[in-house]
Specification:
The protein is mostly helical and 91 residues long. It is built from three helices and two strands; from the N terminus they run ββααα. A hairpin with a 4-residue loop joins β1 and β2.
Length: 91
């Protein structure tokens, strides 16, 4: 089935590319941008994105690698309690 008419990308192309990316790097996070780059194409109008993402989600290799799960619960660079410091201007 053709998923992206602008770039002529089929569901078979998406699944084959996901399998290839996962085989080459088991710890990578697969994104639509990575798929387009691996296929040598770029997103055009974006009308296919809902179907593109739905097709990606059906692939067995789309799971997040174990090492990259639950990273939000770890230490982050942002601290939500930080506020901008008072200005040092002379009144």
């Amino acid at each position: 089935m053709i998923v992206c008419h602008c770039q002529n990308i089929s569901d078979h192309d998406i699944h084959a590319t996901i399998d290839w990316i996962r085989a080459s790097d088991k710890r990578t996070i697969i994104t639509p941008g990575k798929l387009y780059r691996a296929l040598g194409k770029t997103a055009d109008c974006g009308g296919c994105m809902p179907l593109f993402l739905a097709t990606m989600r059906t692939n067995q290799n789309m799971t997040v690698p174990m090492q990259l799960r639950n990273l939000r619960h770890g230490i982050t660079q942002e601290n939500h309690d930080e506020r901008r410091q008072k200005s040092n201007r002379i009144p």
